[in-house]
Structures are given as structure tokens and as C-alpha cells.
Write a structure and sequence with these properties.
single chain, alpha/beta, Four Helix Bundle (Hemerythrin (Met), subunit A), Rossmann fold, 2 domains, 4-stranded mixed sheet, 16 strands, 41% helix, 16% strand
Length: 354
């Protein structure tokens, strides 16, 4: 059962449905995929986005691919699986949850191959694993919300950047889970959502989610946050993350770093909310996080219309990295990690509780 009034992605027996986030908030349209290739395209084209949601989508895509495999030969089946996994791995480079999900599905696949030599049975086991990952993500997000709500006080004005809500996860969200949980506890808060150029996830998606849940919110353009901070209109900042390095450096949607610098100057706490699966313990620091670059037309156009000369040059990195020195805490399902981050992160990854 969904905790929100919509679903981001849904397994439907032999197909997967996604809400088309490119069309929100003006249209609520669901895209149905019947093949793993279609799921890969949905991820690449940002029909679905957000690190946790990308991971679950890839798991669903792999399960769907195996369910549709047309072979009973185990050697062919294994080669087919490797190809499906590779297709998923090429969709989005920054969100580490994608690779976490693929690795988990790989481990399950080869474990299943030891149990059974029947390809149909193995495919069903893979579907069960993907569905389990979905349920675990929802539970994780609820725990993130509960842990994060402790840093929110009644009456706070909270700024969030991009969309780290139910639309970015299986359900409930990460950064927005913190906000939702605080509201459910009866805290009266107000949220500022910045528009998040160039894809406008804050304007199109975060505002849509918050308004659906009747959470008090105000839209601002990206260049307004410094002004609001200077006027003491923002008490706390909470954002999501697409990859967190072993030292706590955190990659999130482009523009997050700018918000963090402003927050540090104005003495405003800055929290990142993400599941432990977003932590890349093999990435020593933010300089090693790959930054996806997307089409320059996302910068040059809004709703398909040029906002600059048509031959203008443009640059479109989709993410930036906030150094750990600018981060107050990282909210996870196992607790809130605070400086020194490397020690706390090692504890979490090893299965400890903060």
C-alpha cells in the first residue's frame, strides 16, 4: 500500500509501470514497459529519476528481462542475464544505487542458478528479489524520515533542493520523508522548494508532491535562497543524495553545492538524507564521483522552447559534489552520521547503528 496518493513505479505481473515525471505537474501519465530495453530507456530519458528509484527500476528491468527470456539453455540464459545487466548499468552513471541494485541482482541470480537449473524458476526468484528490494526501500525511507524528523523543530522553515520525495524512491522519499515524518508528528513547518534548473524538479515535482500532501510550501527560483537566508527565513536545509563518498562528500543535483556554501556562511544546518545503499565505500572522496553530463538543450530550452539564441553554447552537468566540511549531518535509516564522517560511515556500512 502506498504512503502517497500516487505511485512512482509498480510491478504488474509481466510488465512495469512508471509515472512519467517529465510531464508532471501538468499531466499524470503512466508509462508501461514490457521489456528490459524499455525500462532502460525509461531510466535514461528520466521518465523515472532519483537514485533509489533508479535502483529499484533497474532491478525490475532485470527481473522483467529474465521473465521474458526465450531460452531453457543455462549457458545462453547466463549470457542473456549478463547482457541485460550491462544494458541497465549504462543508463545513468552517477547514482550509485543503480550499481548497488545490479550487484544485488547478480548475486541473487548466481545463487539461484546453484539452486535450480530451470530458467523459469530462476526468473521467478529474481522477480521475488526485485519486489523485496521495493518493500525494503519503503521501510528504509520510513526509517530515514523518523530519524531525520528529530532535527526538525516546530515552526521551522525548511529549504529543499531538487526532488528527493516519493517520486525519487519506491515510496515516501528521503529528504521529503524527513519532512513528511515531521508533519505526521504534528510539527507545523513550512517548506521552500527551489525550482532546480535546468530540469525543474523542485518546481515540477517537489511542489506537486508537497501540495498533494497538503504540506505548507512556497516555490522560489534558485537564485533566491541566499536572499532568504540573509533575512533569516530559512532555519534548516535537507536534500537527497545520488552518491556519498567514504569521507562524506556528497553528490546531489547540480546547485546543491551552491546552497551548501550559502548555508555555511549563514550558519544554517545542512543535512543530506539517503539510504546506506547510496554510500559508495569504495569511493574515497568526492573528486572520484563520476558526474553525468546531459543534453545542452535541457539548459537552452524550457518546455521545448529556446530561451537563448539557438546556436548558443551551453554546459549541463547534472550533479555537483558538496564537500563534507559543509555538511551538518547525513540522515540514514540507521541513524544520523555527523563529523567525523569517515568513522561513522564505516560503522554504518559494516552494519552498525549510529
Amino acid at each position: 500500500m502506498n504512503n502517497t496518493s500516487f505511485y512512482t513505479l509498480k510491478w504488474n505481473g509481466d510488465k512495469v509501470s512508471f509515472i512519467d515525471q517529465r510531464l508532471l505537474p501538468n499531466q499524470e501519465v503512466y508509462v508501461t514497459c514490457t521489456s528490459y530495453q524499455e525500462v532502460a530507456t525509461v531510466i535514461e530519458t528520466m521518465v523515472v529519476r532519483g537514485a533509489p528509484a533508479i535502483g529499484i527500476s533497474a532491478a525490475y528491468g532485470i527481473a522483467l528481462g529474465l521473465l521474458k527470456a526465450n531460452t531453457q539453455n543455462m549457458d545462453e540464459f547466463k549470457k542473456y542475464f549478463d547482457n541485460v545487466a550491462n544494458v541497465m548499468a549504462k543508463t545513468r552513471p552517477t547514482a550509485v544505487n543503480l550499481f548497488w541494485a545490479i550487484d544485488r541482482m547478480k548475486k541473487k541470480f548466481y545463487s539461484a542458478c546453484e539452486i535450480s537449473k530451470d530458467t523459469s524458476t530462476i526468473a521467478k526468484m529474481m522477480v521475488e528479489e526485485a519486489l523485496l528490494m521495493y518493500d525494503e526501500d519503503v521501510a528504509t525511507n520510513k526509517a530515514i524520515g523518523k530519524n531525520g524528523s528529530a532535527v526538525i523543530k516546530d515552526g521551522m522553515n525548511i529549504l529543499t533542493h531538487c526532488n528527493a520525495g516519493a517520486l525519487a524512491t519506491a515510496d515516501y522519499g528521503t529528504a521529503l520523508a524527513v519532512i513528511r515524518s515531521a508533519v505526521e508528528e504534528g510539527k507545523k513547518i513550512h517548506v521552500y522548494a527551489d525550482e532546480t534548473r535546468p530540469f525543474l524538479q523542485g518546481a515540477r515535482l517537489t511542489m506537486w508532491e508537497l501540495m498533494k500532501d497538503n504540506i505548507d510550501c512556497t516555490l522560489i527560483s534558485d537564485n533566491m535562497s541566499g536572499h532568504l537566508m540573509s533575512k533569516k527565513k530559512i532555519d534548516l536545509i535537507v536534500v537527497g543524495a545520488d552518491r556519498i563518498a567514504a569521507n562524506g562528500d556528497s553528490a546531489n543535483k547540480i546547485g546543491t553545492y551552491s546552497v551548501a556554501v550559502l548555508a555555511k556562511y549563514h550558519g544554517i544546518p545542512m543535512y543530506f538524507a539517503a539510504p546506506i545503499s547510496t554510500i559508495d565505500i569504495n569511493c574515497p572522496d568526492g573528486s572520484k564521483i563520476p558526474i553525468e553530463e546531459r543534453s545542452i538543450d535541457e539548459v537552452r530550452k524550457v518546455n521545448g522552447t529556446f530561451i537563448c539564441p539557438q546556436n548558443a553554447k551551453a554546459f549541463n552537468p547534472s550533479f555537483d559534489v558538496t564537500p563534507n566540511s559543509l555538511i551538518t549531518g547525513i540522515i540514514t535509516e540507521k541513524g544520523v552520521v555527523r563529523p567525523p564522517f569517515a568513522e561513522g560511515i564505516r560503522t554504518l556500512v559494516k552494519g552498525g547503528v549510529i
